[in-house]
């Protein structure tokens, strides 16, 4: 599955070892590390692998992770599990998501450089798209030139070729068909596709959360936590003396 592909690709790309991956068509992904830590999310496992190997996963990358998890993987699953073999153009939500990704690459909002390396974001997003791109009948070339170029670099990387061969057993994208058919109802999503441009805006000035805490307040909170300073006790309230009946 693309989920297993993500994790295996992250291992090959970063040189991470000592990992065991289990996936059955009727059960969730399970990634077990030698130390005993278990991940049931491929994206969490990818983040751990990259950070363990010294490659920090920043906020932008986490938003691409969220985009892939909340919409892209579901749209790809819908397309790949259709029994009628409908063309890509008959899946407008998927086409819209891919178009937004093309725009993000063109505007550098999605900073990918697959000719030199596969980042954590590349690993997650492009692995999700690989069952479509690696299908010789995908018909994506003309409409998404920048995305196709990065996907070509991505698929030519030694790490991807090794992971792809191990996952598909040499049978290509058709190897994913049982997985997509078995899990097509597993993920529910809002059918309105999310814009990839939104995923790249980590410091939107119009965001109401931006000024929720100032740097000074955050620093004070940090100092308070580190020094375990106690919270000031509430001042005792003086209640009025009520008259006693008969006095």
Describe the protein in words:
With 247 residues, the chain is mainly alpha-helical. It has a domain of 142 residues: Glutathione S-transferase Yfyf (Class Pi), Chain A, domain 2 (Up-down Bundle). It is built from 10 helices and 3 strands; from the N terminus they run αβββααααααααα. Strands 1-2-3 form a 3-stranded antiparallel beta sheet. The longest helix has 22 residues.
Helix/strand layout:
Layout: H1 2-14, E1 19-22, E2 30-33, E3 38-39, H2 42-52, H3 59-80, H4 92-106, H5 120-133, H6 145-156, H7 158-168, H8 177-183, H9 196-199, H10 215-227
Helix pairs in contact: 1-2, 1-5, 1-7, 3-5, 5-6
List keywords for this structure.
mainly alpha; 10 helices; Glutathione S-transferase Yfyf (Class Pi), Chain A, domain 2; 49% helix; 3 strands; globular; three-stranded antiparallel sheet
Strand order of the largest sheet: 1-2-3
State the CATH topology of the domain at 58-199: Glutathione S-transferase Yfyf (Class Pi), Chain A, domain 2
Poorly predicted ranges: 190-198, 200-212, 228-235
Annotated CATH architecture of the domain at 58-199: Up-down Bundle
Distance between the termini: 85 Å
Shape: globular
**β-sheet strand percentage:** under 5%
Helix-strand makeup class: mainly alpha
* DSSP, total strands: 3
- SS summary, helix count: 10
Major sheet description: 3 strands, antiparallel
List the helices and strands in order.
HEEEHHHHHHHHH
What is the CATH class designation of the domain at 58-199? Mainly Alpha
Rg value:
24 Å
What share of the residues lie within helices?
40-55%
Region (Disordered): 191-247
Protein name: GST C-terminal domain-containing protein
Biased composition (Basic and acidic residues): 191-201
Organism: Ciona savignyi
């Amino acid at each position: 599955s693309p989920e297993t592909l993500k994790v295996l690709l992250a291992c090959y790309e970063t040189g991470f070892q000592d990992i065991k991956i289990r996936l059955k068509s009727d059960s969730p992904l399970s990634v077990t590390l030698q130390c005993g830590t278990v991940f049931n999310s491929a994206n969490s496992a990818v983040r751990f692998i990259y950070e363990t190997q010294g490659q920090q996963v920043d906020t932008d990358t986490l938003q691409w992770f969220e985009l892939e998890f909340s919409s892209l993987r579901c749209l790809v699953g819908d397309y790949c599990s259709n029994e009628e073999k409908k063309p890509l153009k008959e899946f407008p939500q998927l086409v819209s998501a891919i178009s937004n990704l093309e725009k993000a690459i063109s505007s550098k909002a999605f900073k990918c450089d697959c000719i030199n390396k596969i980042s954590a974001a590349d690993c997650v997003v492009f692995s999700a798209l690989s069952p479509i791109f690696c299908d010789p009948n995908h018909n994506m070339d003309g409409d998404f030139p920048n995305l196709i170029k990065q996907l070509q670099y991505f698929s030519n990387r030694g790490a991807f070729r090794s992971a792809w061969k191990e996952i598909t057993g040499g049978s290509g994208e058709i190897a994913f068909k049982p997985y997509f058919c078995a899990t097509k109802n597993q993920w529910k999503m809002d059918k309105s596709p999310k814009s990839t441009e939104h995923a790249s805006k980590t410091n939107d000035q119009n965001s109401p959360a931006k000024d929720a805490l100032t740097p000074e307040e955050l620093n004070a909170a940090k100092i308070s936590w580190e020094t375990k300073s106690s919270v000031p006790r509430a001042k005792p309230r003086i209640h009025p003396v009520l008259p006693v009946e008969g006095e």
